[in-house]
Write a structure and sequence with these properties.
Blueprint lengths: L1 H37 L5 E5 L7 H6 L3 E5 L3 H11 L5 E4 L2 E3 L3 E5 L1 E2 L6 H5 L11 E2 L6 E7 H12 L2 E6 L5 H10 L6 E6 L10 H14 L5 E2 L4
Parallel strand pairs: 1-2, 1-9, 2-3, 4-8, 9-10, 10-11
Antiparallel strand pairs: 5-8, 6-7
Length: about 230
């Protein structure tokens, strides 16, 4: 009987996780459709963590000027093939953070078995679950200061239509700084996927960040549930 109960509970948890994933996917699909409907030719978009371009391409098809940032060499090669020929896409083979320089990129432990699936997990933040941090397996990549790039762009264009971040933990430092400096004001919509589950030690900071942003901005201005 105990085995049956344990199996049933395990099956229930699997079904619950599956339902939650489906709900998040539906939410993300609806959010993406709303974003595409609001963008106009000439709008400025920052796609940080562009990976192979699955989000970048529909963003570019609106006519917006899309700045796509991707540090992983494998993903950047695919990104270049998929959107590199579009005149309104500016590609940056670099990671983004709060400062500029160079930094080590770490990949998923199973990257070599599944580079396409593994490339979405590449990160510049240490301590991630199932990430290979061995020095011999890391890659030196360029690091750009996203706050500086945003300020330079705003000085030229006065507004940014969309800032999207899916950068595997590096969003935490950036969002904290943007909140402190009130940098969300001139960006129509900021969306980010936060990675609390991947970085256990950073969970208290993520929690505090979510609470602080929720007190200041509606989700139509800053949405931290991008998937």
């Amino acid at each position: 009987m105990s085995d049956q109960i344990a199996f049933s509970q395990d099956e229930w948890r699997k079904r619950k996780r599956r339902a939650e994933r489906n709900l998040r996917h539906a939410h993300a699909t609806g959010l993406m459709q709303g974003i595409l409907s609001m963008l106009r030719p000439g709008d400025i978009v920052f796609d940080c963590g562009a990976n192979i371009g699955e989000v970048c391409l529909p963003l570019a098809e609106t006519g917006a000027e899309v700045h796509a940032f991707e540090p992983d060499p494998y993903a950047f090669e695919q990104l270049s093939q998929n959107v590199g020929s579009l005149e309104n896409v500016i590609l940056h083979n670099a990671a983004v953070g709060v400062s500029a320089g160079s930094i080590k990129l770490m990949r998923a432990s199973n990257f070599h078995d599944n580079p396409k699936g593994g490339s979405v997990k590449s990160t510049i933040v240490k301590g991630g679950r199932n990430i290979n941090e061995n020095d011999g397996d890391t890659i030196d990549v360029a690091l750009l200061s996203l706050p500086e790039l945003l300020n330079e762009t705003l000085a030229k264009h006065q507004r940014i239509a969309l800032l999207k971040m899916d950068i595997e933990g590096a969003e935490l430092d950036i969002l904290e700084l943007m909140l402190e400096r009130e940098m969300f004001q001139d960006i129509d919509l900021t969306v980010a996927e936060t990675h609390e589950r991947k970085f256990r030690e950073l969970r208290p900071r993520f929690k505090a960040l979510r609470e602080a942003i929720a007190q200041r901005y509606p989700i139509t201005k800053v949405n931290l549930d991008w998937i």
